[in-house]
Design goal:
alpha/beta, 20% strand, 37% helix, Rossmann fold, GMP Synthetase, Chain A, domain 3
Length: 275
Amino acid sequence: MGKSTLLNSVLGVKVSITSPRPHTTRRRVLGVLDGDERQIVFVDTPGIHRPRSALGNRMNEASASAVDDADVAVAVVDARAPIGPGDRRALRRAREAAARTVVVVNKIDGIARRRVVAQLAAVSALGEGGADGEGIECFPVSARTGAGVDELVKALSASLPEGPRYFPPGMVTDVPEAFHVAELVREQLLVVVADELPHAIACRVSAWEWPYIRCEILVERPSQKPIVIGRGGQVLKTVGTAVRAQLPPGAYLDLFVKVEPDWQNRPVEIERLGY
């Protein structure tokens, strides 16, 4: 639906990886929008879903915890897809937990205005008859092009309570650099091998002695290892080239594929991965 793309657009810098695949975000990602008169802390969370593994349970816990702590919950729905049960569950959970909830109708670029209006109406209808008697505030945006993003940020800024600056000037995220690099590797793997292995892959940096970075790519079965490596190592070469383009000049990225059976259901492994 574009939660992570929206966060990156709001901040003007990439702090969260993105992909067309659902459940790309696996842990809370904090983004700080800092200015002379305001500091807004955004939290990108995993999508709420029906978990099929210990990792899925951990992702839902991270989402629930973030919503409970928020002054405003921002639910994101796709302008190009029907409102589904998952959207309804997420919105209901947000309205129960947060003092205020707004809905972003994302991906309005490239579609007819009448379709956007129809989706806004469908979202608004979800608030009719709510226990609080209030409707749902909607913002049409395109996280990809930035259309409507400034208006969303202004509305959020105006409604947030006054408080101290929680983070120092210049800080954009609390995500450790090594974790971010590992996520960049996973992002590129989702581009290249997502059809075969959308959720079986995890990545972690196991060595960092600049400019040398060693990143392990975890798969669950031996049969998945050659898919990630590719014929003649082509998949790893493609991924490595794309990730190095996003790192400071001179970085040496060493990719290594490792089999960790059923890692998604092993709490110790999930902790080691930072999820």
